[in-house]
Design brief:
single chain; mainly alpha; two-stranded antiparallel ribbon
């Protein structure tokens, strides 16, 4: 008696169908992710920035810079803190480089931010000084754009967030540094401090 053979077309059809469903789901997920990202960019960056003048954005950068440098000054000298500060500086310098396009320059609009990060061996005091000077450069850039405003329709690509206007870029730099700097941790109090410091938490969130 001959045995019945399973048709080779059946698993092939199942495979094709499965791949088709998976590909469709992945496409829908990507589309949904783009929609969510676009809504967040519009609500958090573009709309508020569009209602602000470059002078107001410069003032916001300057004000938040006071908190930023304060957190940096109180940060303990740890690898984690140095990494956070280097990241903030690198992103802000990278953003400044991209924003040169709004002033008629021709920066590389495809390169990642890593080239703008301080070297790995940069010390904490050096990073603290760079935080201050880097933010001052962003404030100056906003004021330059007040004098020579970019076209409202001009956008500059962000590697993750897509095309942003110059104003949205400035708002992004403000909020990125503010959020990241909250990861910094202060120095632990010395054990046996006469003022009762031993009863305080070992690290302070800035």
């Amino acid at each position: 008696m001959s045995q019945r053979r399973t048709s080779p077309a059946v698993p092939a059809l199942i495979t094709v169908a499965t791949v088709g469903v998976a590909a469709g789901a992945a496409y829908l997920a990507r589309t949904r992710q783009r929609d969510i990202k676009g809504a967040v960019v519009s609500r958090v960056l573009e709309r508020p920035a569009g209602r602000s003048s470059y002078q107001e954005l410069a003032h916001s950068l300057e004000t938040s810079g006071t908190h930023l440098t304060g957190r940096a000054a109180r940060a303990a000298d740890t690898h984690a803190n140095r990494e956070v500060l280097a990241h903030i500086i690198g992103i802000e310098r990278w953003g400044q480089h991209r924003l040169g396009a709004a002033l008629g320059k021709h920066p590389d609009l495809t390169a990642p931010y890593h080239d703008h990060r301080p070297p790995q061996d940069t010390t904490l005091p050096q990073l603290q000084a760079l935080i201050t000077s880097t933010r001052a450069a962003s404030v100056d850039l906003a004021r330059q754009l007040h004098t020579r405003p970019a076209n409202d329709d001009q956008t500059i690509p962000h590697n993750s967030l897509g095309d942003l206007t110059a104003k949205a870029w400035l708002r992004y730099l403000t909020h990125h540094a503010d959020l990241e700097s909250r990861k910094l941790r202060g120095a632990a109090p010395q054990t046996g401090d006469m003022n009762g410091a031993e009863h305080q938490p070992s690290a302070t969130k800035l």
